[in-house]
Every structure is written in C-alpha cells, then in structure tokens.
Amino acid sequence: MPVDLWPQPVLDLLATGDDRPVFEDGDRIVTAAGMSALVRRIAAGFRDAGLRPGDGVALDVGVTAEAFAAVIAAFAMGARVSGIRPGLTPDQLGHLLASADARLVGEAGLAGLLRAPDDGVPLVAAGRPAGIARITWTSGSTGNPKGCAQTYAAMSAAWAAYPDRWPPAVAELAGRLGRYLVFGSLSSQVMLEYAILTLAAGGTLVAARPPGLPGMIARHRATASVITVGKLHQLVHDQRTRPADLSSLRALLVSGSPLAPGRLAEALEVLGPVVFHGYGQTETGMIAMATPAELLGDPAVLATVGRPPAVVDVSIRDAAGRPAAEGELFVRTPAQATAYWADPAESAEVFTGGWVRTRDLARLDANGYLQLLGRVRDVIIVEANLVYAGAVERVLSADPAVAEAYVVGRPDDVTGEAVHAYVVPATGHTPDVARLRRLVADTLGAAARPHSVQVITGVPLTPAGKPDKPALTRLDAAGGRAAR
C-alpha cells in the first residue's frame, strides 16, 4: 500500500500537528491533535457500522470540525464518498442516493458515529488505488445530478497536500492562506481542495458564520476565501459605498462564471492585490490560475484565466479533432476524474483517450496564457452551478400554457450569470410566469430558476431557419411581457 495514498498525508499532518490550531468556529478552536482524535472516532464509528472499503457514503453535513473529520474519516476507510450539494430537490436527492448506492449520513448520523471511543491507534488509509474515492455531484440542472468519479490513485496524485508539488501560482496562494474562510459544504470539491492546501501551508480553517461578506472577513480576521463572480461584484460595490475593514485579506480565489477584464481590473483597484483568477472544472480540478502580480503586471492577462502549470497538459482542437490555434479545449490533469458515475454514454463523450473534453472554446496567447472564447455546450453558470439551457427549456415547454421555450444566459452582478427565459404561449393560453419560475426551481433546483420570463409572439430565426438565441437577448422588453 503506497504510504501517500489519499488521505494519508492529511492523516499524518493531523497526527503530528500537536497543539497547532487547524479549525476555528467562533470561540471554539480545534487543534491538529483534537482533529486527529475526531477523525479516529468517526472512523471507528464507521467501522462499527459495518463500512468497508468500496462502500458508498453520502455526507449531508454542515461546516463544523466534525463535518471535516467525517469527510477525512470516510476517505480513510476507503469509502466511495459523495458530498450532498445544498439545494437539491427531494427527487434529485433520492436519485443521487440510489445512483451512488450510498448510505446517507446527516447531522444526526454524524452524532451517532461520534459516540465511538478513540483507541488512539494511528489510521492508515484503506482505499484501493483503482477504487472510486469521490463522486462529486453537479447541481442537477440537467434534471438529475451527474457524478464525476475520481479514483484513490487520482486523489493521491493531487498537489494540494504536497508543498513540493505546488505550481508557482498555487505556492503564491498558499502563502496567503493563514485563515481560510470555509462555507457552504466541506464535501465540496473546491472547498475541500483549498482546505487541504491551507492545512498543508500551516493555516487554519475558519467557519464562516452569517451575516455574509464583507462583514465576515473583518469579523473572522480572514486572510483568504473562495468567492463567486457574483459575490465579488457585490463585495466591490459594497467597498465603494460602505467600506469595511478588509486589512486582513490577502487572497480571494475567484471561481465559477466568466469574469470580464474590466470587472477584474475594478476588483483589483478596489480590493488591492488580493485577487487570484482561476479556471477549472469538476471533472479536472484546477486548469489554470493567474496571480495578482500577473494581473497587475500586464493588462493583457486580465483577459485570460491564467497560465496552466507544467503538470497540466492542454490541447486545443478544431471540430474535426485536429490541433488548432483556436478551438475546443481538452486537458489532462493529475487528479482528473475518470468517468461520470453510472453514465457510460456521457463518459465516452467527455473522457476520451486520457483527455477530458472541457467543451469550452479557448486559445493560448504568445506567453502561454489561456483565454476562454465561449462554450461548445449551451450552459449558464449561476453562482458556480452549471445550468443547462436545454433542461430548463424542457421544463418550461412541458407546461400546457407554453408552446415554445428558449433560454439564454446574461451577465449578472449578483450571480455571475443569470437564466433568462422566453416563452411563446400556446393558443388560447396566457402563461403564468411566476408559476413557471417556481416550476423550474422545484424541478431543477433554485440555481436554474429563471431570473426573468418574457412572453413573446415568436422566436427570431437565423437565415438557416434555426432559433436565433443571440437575437433573443436583444429583444426589447416592450415587445413582450417580462416578469421576475
């Protein structure tokens, strides 16, 4: 068994960290030794409950020291770990649990696991390199969540827990992660990845408690956090109008929706040299990153998502799969997923010949910086959640009052991008736009809820006779009836 099999580096770090603080939640501070004991107790609870390597566990837990310990303990047991994203509908949750063949562990179940005694025996990672370690589930905006499956070998090849593997941009970020704000879900891929990076860099995970930005940065004396594009826009606005004390802040890692160069420049101007602009996908992990110094040193870098590190292979291909200066981006990363769980057709489409098809259009500039040009797929990124336009259109079109439905995305200062819908009424019907918005949210989740629904008499067409979605975004509201 490899000594560095995931999560052995984390287990060793905690077991040897003694009184170093690793998790802070209000007045409660958990040391490395205390966290190590929590992990051992929860692992013992899993063992007593009959969990074995390869069994499925779905964690629906909050942001606490116990939640972090549960994630690490489940990995230590060699389980197939799924995190539950907030906001799933009951039907989506049921589909996820059935598809993942996983036992659900919520807060009550976690409390039960913690009743197991700590025998003090150091844990040894029990996973199998070829076994599935983690299924990271999408938001469910296709109708049901889709799971990206990573093996234990892939997670063991990741860079976060190993300072000697950190690419230069990541090493720069790591030095600023003294007090990293954690929120949402500790089983989130992004949140866990940078939590592990924080611990490996000697920092502390700090539970973010409401109210939100910018107050929580000042209140927790946070040095770093992950932030979506929408929340970044709001933070910049708030700092212009009602400045808070952000003197502790040293790093904001922007993720999710595309970020316009002008808005990125504004964020650096208002917040200072703290913004790291990164790009990655659930299927791949980090693909590229730009540091504040790079962004401030060359205006051209503002139009990019940074430079892929040496360990990331990049291939840009035309529609026929041939190398091209501009085209669809394919990547290979050390810790990429291997497939979509129980979805061989979609897996064959995306995971091809050892490469991951990003379905993003891109080019590399003369200095090796990656610029995104658009998307092959019709997807809208809302608060870092992928919302597929086709899925929303199908829900809207199923309503008896709707003859046709079309969905587009537009930039949004709150959510990064927002869903906007256009519906053609069925003969003799008047669509209830408020009900349509609720129907989408109930079926696909809150992220997919249309920001607006506009009733139109017909869809504009291209010269080829196909729906012209760009023309839809130019429609004047006077030509139809819009609702929010």
Could you outline the blueprint of secondary structure elements for this entry?
Blueprint: H1 8-15, E1 21-25, E2 28-31, H2 32-48, E3 56-59, H3 65-76, E4 80-83, H4 90-100, E5 102-105, H5 107-113, E6 132-137, E7 147-151, H6 152-156, H7 168-174, E8 179-182, H8 189-200, E9 204-207, H9 215-220, E10 224-228, H10 229-241, E11 251-255, H11 261-271, E12 275-281, E13 285-290, H12 292-297, E14 313-317, E15 326-332, E16 339-340, H13 344-350, E17 351-352, E18 355-364, E19 370-375, E20 379-382, E21 385-388, H14 389-397, E22 402-412, E23 416-425, H15 433-444, E24 452-455, H16 469-472, E25 481-483
Parallel strand pairs: 1-9, 3-4, 3-5, 4-6, 8-9, 10-11, 11-12, 23-24
Antiparallel strand pairs: 1-2, 6-7, 7-16, 12-13, 14-15, 15-18, 17-18, 18-19, 20-21, 22-23, 24-25
Helix pairs in contact: 1-2, 2-3, 10-11, 14-15
